[in-house]
Design goal:
By secondary structure, this protein is α/β, with parallel strands linked by helices. The chain contains 13 helices and 13 strands. The relative contact order is 0.17. The chain binds pyridoxal-5'-phosphate (PLP).
Length: 405
Amino acid sequence: MITREGCLALDDSDPLAHLRDEFLLPEGVVYLDGNSLGPLSTRVADRIDRVVRSEWGEGLIRSWNAAGWIDLPRQVGDKIGRLVGAEPGTIVACDSTSVNLFKAVAAAVSAAEQRAALLTDAGNFPTDIYVMRTVAERSGLELRVAAPDALIEAITSDVGLVAVTQVDYRTGRRHDMGAVNAAARRHGVLTVWDLAHSAGAFPVDLSGTGSDYAVGCGYKYLNGGPGAPGFIYVSPSQQASFRNPITAWFGHVAPFDFDLEFRPAPGIDRARVGTSHVISLAGLDAALDIFEHVHLGEVEAKSQSLTQVFIELCEEMGLDVVTPREFVWRGSQVSLRHPDAYPIVQALISQGVIGDFRAPDIARFGFAPLYLRHADIFDAAQTLADIMERGTWRDPRFSLRQAVT
Ligand SMILES: *Cc1c(COP(=O)(O)O)cnc(C)c1O
């Protein structure tokens, strides 16, 4: 039986507790949507203010050199690398996750041996599947969509590459990266990982597990701010053969030579496209400094503990938890299936508990270990229990669909 006192005791012994002070969370809100948009921190607000007023306002174009804007994609990439087990010089922060996935999948197709198909799973985020279908069609290949728990068996020697999201955005189910990479290696298949719901939530070991390519998001658990750039990883062994399908000047070996011939940059810079989104990239850079002295094992342990508390409280209420019970098989989120998930989430939001809805019937709650407390989770569950008991969600205003769910 979980009690509020028990949760307070867990918070008292939480080695990450001090990090909450970094964030500017509104009063009276339990924020369980940091898996969709991480919150603002003082560092990010201050940095963006400085970039806008001083570096841009005063420095003008000189800031590309003087303020180091030109180095940001690599600098931010290396900070992300520490969180996802990637060596320095293997990640650049740029573009959106969708664009990075297109680059990675298209490059992998040109690097892969001639095979019949690309492989993904049905738990993948739709944008990933759309991107893969287009690449498949343009290369005359088949796109196979396996059931998530049949992914490994679907990795066969007529597949050129497998691209999946490590943590299912709906159910929270997590793939075993080591096992998928090992199966891929056995059949000579390249791997592309989407770490949108992994980076910053628990340690990832891209290099140790032998991943070929990866992409991820800067505005979810990394807290870079709305529309912050994503990132792309190209393993050292794939860098020399990496062919960016969008050949543009920042992927060129010498952008300021203004050479009419495209010659790719030697390392990870060849994964870049155009001019950086400097303001949001600087915000992401500042947000990553919060992770600098954080032990990722502690982040993972807290993710496990927060999700465990919520799962148990939801089970006590008799709710249908679709997220795997065993920690190794889940990310840092808990999803509930309910035919009225949409109005239930809206009713929760009206009472300061912010989660989100994913069609057709999932109420989704993200548990970001840097700023959430166990007591918050207890309170959120109490609010949920109250809404279910009273049927508050039945009020018609909670059923009005908005553009973003
Ligand atoms: C959030 C998310 C994206 C978002 O892509 P954008 O290009 O940033 O809009 C992509 N893939 C997955 C798996 C996601 O969860």
